[in-house]
Structures are given as C-alpha cells and as structure tokens.
Amino acid sequence: MKVLNIVGARPNFMKMAPIIEAMNKYPKQIEHLLVHTGQHYDEKMSKAFFDDLGMPVPDINLEVGSGSHAEQTAKVMIEFEKVCLREKPDLVIVVGDVNSTMACTITAKKLGIKVAHVEAGLRSRDMSMPEEINRLCTDVLCDYLFTTDHFANENLAAEGVPAEKVFFVGNVMIDTLLKHREMAAGLTLSRNLGLVPKEYATLTMHRPGNVDDKVVLTGILEALSEISEEIPIVFPIHPRTKKMAEQFGLGHFFNSGENVKGIWITEPLGYLEFLHLNMYAKMVLTDSGGLQEETTVLGVPCITMRPNTERPITCEVGSNVIVGGNKQKILAQAKQILSGELQQGRVPEKWDGHAAERIVDVLIKEFV
C-alpha cells in the first residue's frame, strides 16, 4: 500500500505526526511519503515544528508559497498532479482544512486515487471562512472520512455521506499533545519570562474578521487591555496581526516592557513552547480552531473570539465559550474565569491519544 501524506501549513504538522508514527509500525504493509506543499512556509517555524514533533523531513516539497486563495490552490493542484502521476499512490491522506487539503483532494480524485480526510465533518456554517469551503469540498469527494466527535458524524449524515465511509476515531491533535505533554511541562520558558503558573493568560489572534477591521480590533484590544490589568497576557503575535495593529495605530496596547501587567508580545513560538505556556495558563483567549481542542484536554478555560466554531464539542463539554469580537462578552467571560466561578470541563470520547492508531488500523483492513 503506497500512501502520500499531505501537509500544507503548521497546524497540519501536529495532525500528521502521529499518523506517520502509527504507519511506521507496519513497514512491510505501508510505504509512505510525506509531501509538504509549502503553502505556509517559514523556515524557522517549520524547522521548529519538525524538530519538536520528531517528524521526518518531507520527501517532497512543492514550494508553492503564498498568493491569493485561487493562485495557491491552482499551484498546489498543478504541482501535486505531477507527484501523483510519478508516484502512483494507492491513497492520499489529507488533514484539516487549509487550501492544500482541498487542492490535493480534487487532484487525486480526478486521477482516480482514493483519498482519506482526517478531521472530517467539522462545520462552522460560516461560508465567509475559506476553511469552511475547503472542508465541504473535501468531504464530498473523500473515500474515507475520519471524525473527531459525534457532531462531525451528524454533519456528514445530514449531508448524505454513506455511513460506511465514516469512521469515528478521535482526535489526532490530542495524540500529539498527550505524547509531548511531559516534555513541554519540563521547559523553563514561563519561568524565564517571569511568569507564575495560573497567574497569566495566553492569546492568539489572526483571523481577518478580527484583525482586518479597525473597529473590531480596537474593541478586542480594549477588552484585552482591561483584562491585562488583572493578569499579564502573553501574545506570540502573528505577522498579519502585528502589521494591521501598526497600520491602525493600535501599537500602544502592547506592553513596552515597563511593567509586569499588560499584553506581552513575543515572536511566534514552537509547538512545545506554546504548549508549555498554555498548560500553565489561567485561561487562553483565541480565534484559532485547534487551541479550542487543546485547552479542552489541558483543562484550561478557553475564550473563543469568533462568532461561531466548527468544534462545538468543546462548548458541549464545558471547556470553551464563544464570545465573538464583542468587548463586553470577552470581559464578562474573563472576569468569571478570574473569579474562579467556572467548573472544570470534561474530555470528549476517544480523545485518548490513540486516534492515529485507529486510522491506520482501518486503512490496513481496507487495503492490506
């Protein structure tokens, strides 16, 4: 069985690492190649992820680079078609919801190659999100749909996907987290930064809906600034967010290093470093998808600054609250967490560190 494993952007690495590890247990049955489309490539960050996760260096790098959604998707399709024709795989595995996920799925299917989607069935119902379009297109075409929770199963059933294509396996992101948890816990980063466990918050923010609109970004930063008077907020800032904040004249919200409180800006962090910070945080504020899942398993309250989520399971189990970009809602939720009023959430079914093994078991049965 010959498999092409596709990664395109940083979140894909955390999802693919445990799948590759599980495949390595079957060297006689599975030959696999790692294809990096180069959709999102920052040498420093990518190297940190490969080193942290123990992933092999990609066998093939398409080096498509950035561009508009159409340009990027087209470049991936053109380059990936050449790889498929040369390598003749039995199966292509895509993860997540980036442009590469959809582009490689379409390309493989047009060549008659079977495709498996890991993290299938997630839906935000928000068609202004490019990721939602990628998810919908990918799931319609795939032969194997590996899901993380009951919501995903229900979404696929409602869309008419045959039940025999759907496999509830759990969450590969959590496989990676549980494997590296102890290693991350042993880092000294928080101590080096002068942070006290459970007496700081972490923040990520990069979505266009939050950072490209001056009014929305101002409101969010005002809320965060108020929270940071109570507790320091560590913000590994995304280049896009930094650029927009400077463009809008909002740089004064960030700590200049003159006091302990405030919003602390850092460079983007590696996987283990950021896991370490989140593990010991009092709360996490984010507009990311994956962090909603990670905080659920870490038992750290999460405030999601988006109007919706494709991961409602995190809200169902009580670890995550959706507040949008609304200043008052952000403040109200943060105050609840700071006052200790919130009860601990629980961990969803099959988020146990064995999702990748279940995926490979299914594929071995199907192909070998």
Summarize the structure.
The protein has 16 helices and 13 strands. The chain has 368 residues and is an alpha/beta fold.
Model description:
- The protein is α/β, with parallel strands linked by helices and 368 residues long.
- Helix content is 46%, strand content 14%.
- It is built from 16 helices and 13 strands.
Annotate the secondary structure layout.
Blueprint (H helix, E strand, L loop, with lengths): L1 E6 L2 H14 L7 E6 L6 H11 L6 E2 L7 H19 L3 E5 L3 H12 L3 E5 L11 H12 L2 E4 L2 H9 L7 E3 L3 H14 L3 H4 L8 E3 L4 H4 L2 H14 L5 E4 L2 H9 L15 E4 L4 H9 L3 E4 L3 H9 L3 E3 L8 H4 L3 E3 L4 H12 L16 H13 L1
Parallel strand pairs: 1-2, 1-4, 2-3, 4-5, 5-6, 6-7, 8-9, 8-11, 9-10, 11-12, 12-13
Helix pairs in contact: 1-2, 1-7, 1-16, 3-4, 4-5, 7-12, 10-15
Shape: globular
Oligomer: single chain
Mean pLDDT across the residues is 94
Order of helices and strands: EHEHEHEHEHEHEHHEHHEHEHEHEHEHH
Give a short account of the largest sheet.
Answer: 7 strands, parallel
- Assign the structural class, choosing from mainly alpha, mainly beta, alpha/beta, alpha+beta, or little secondary structure: alpha/beta
Range of strand content: 5-15%
User: Could you give the count of β-strands?
Assistant: 13
Rounded to the nearest angstrom, the distance between the terminal CA atoms is 7 Å
Spatial arrangement of strands, main beta sheet: 3-2-1-4-5-6-7
Alpha plus pi helix count: 16
Question: Gyration radius, to the nearest Å?
Answer: 20 Å
Percent helix: 40-55%
Poorly predicted segments? none
